[in-house]
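Support case: user asked for a sample of complex input and structure output to validate their parser. Sending the pair below.
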Amino acid sequence: MTKSIVLLFIPAMIMQSCITSLQPLVTKNTVVTDSRLTGTWNSDGQDYTIQKVAESDVYKKYNESSMSFSSPPFKRDSILYSKSYVIHYMKNKIKYDLYGSMIQLNGEYFMNFSFADLNDEDSSSISEREICPTCFLQSYTIARIRFSNSNTIKLDFINGDFLYKQIKAGRMKLKHETDDLYDTFLITASTNELQKFILKYGKDDRFFDKENSVTLIRKS
Amino acid sequence: MKKTYWELNHPILRIIQHLAFWVLSFFVFLYLFKTGARPEKIDYVYTILFQLTLLPAVYLNIELLFPKLGNRKRILFYLFSLAVIIIFFTWINYNFFDKWSAKVFPDYFFISYFTFREIILFFSVYIIISTLMKLSKSWFLVSGLQKELLEKEKQKTEVELKALKAQINPHFFFNTLNSIYSMALDKDDRLPGTVLQLSDLMRYFLYVSRDNFIPLEKEMTVLDNYIALQKIRSDSKLNFEIKRSGEINGQQIAPLLLITFLENAFKHGAKGSSEKSFIFLNTIIEKNKLIFSIENNKGWVDEIKTGEYNGLGLENVKRQLELLYPGKHSLKISNEPNSFKVQLELNL
């Protein structure tokens, strides 16, 4: 049976010009945690809740369903998830849940975000459609995380426009696929290559545009 | 000697060969390294830079390490030096793409897409390929030089053989004419027949003996003529015994070898004043083998004639044997108080 694979792009908290990668930046061997992350945060009037996965509603919801964390594909990544976070927020009456896994490279923290769940308060059809993890191909977006102090976190998302222009101009060597019809592209480089790229250019501000930054202020 | 452009070691052809190798290698790498369907500008830049790190390692090996250390005595030191070079340039490659290139090429973004082990493999393969190419090129050069040397050696041998033959003929005629001169002084009636037989021999020397090898049958006929010639002028005191066994047809031999021994025997034996003059000649022909032995008494000539021309014929024959039958002959010369014996064995 041919399985239709849908690339599920992360709804933005996250800007249009953020980069999307097919492979994660963080793996179970490289994932790190930081207690400063958890809590309720606010940015430009928008609230965000960051919890450890095991403490999140998503975890409870999946554990109660047939797609529990002890079953594939979650079982394989249980170590990764045990050290990952769920970022929850609501926008336009839709509840979004993202997984966030953090890595430290060259003295900087980076987090890759992937889809966890979404729930439309007006309709239950979306969650029903997307709750099947094997029906879509997960994708990731990446941000640099800087802790200004224990109450402020700055997320600098990788500037997709910059990468796209460099790749189009033949100045960047990173595996990718382009969709000429919609003028979009997807990074298909391996996790190892992504890590090496971030390790080398993680401090290069050209990769992080101000427009792609989110500053979170702790609420509680 | 001026080299032509197409000789393997001509500097211009050498540069072309090296350029061709690196251009070919460049395109192989380009299509191996490209990330999209077609190579982009970054792929060209990356491939050129990747090759630039390969170049010093390859040329250090083929121009310095291999010529100086690539022998059995220094093989361990060579392999150690090679390993050091491979690891050093792998380190350069790895760090250049992973760190340093951001400073040198700030507007080009790439990393080292290979692990340290994979780059070591790249370097090792390139060094092995380039070493094998150098070895095969050297083999072609040596092979060509060997061929040239053999050709020169062959030409030299032919020139030397011609010179030796040119020495033998006058030497033989000098001796025979001396004999005819003696017959003329004695007003011997057999002189006309002797001159006629000499004429036959001269024909043989002039036309037949030009070849390196002639039928053994012809050489034996010449020997018979020569014996007949010498018998005419010999007196009845000479005890001449001749034995010949075996099949001579179908065998080949270098001309003028045997007659020189016979000529010496007559010169030193039969011409002596001894009452017991003798010549014993025995020729045995076996399958692809000739055993020729001749023994003669020593006459007064051997005590009187000790001049510079003495033994010239034998020396010539020895040299001819070395050139024409290397490792295929055995020559024993026994110089006894009263006799002189020669035994020659030839693998025909």
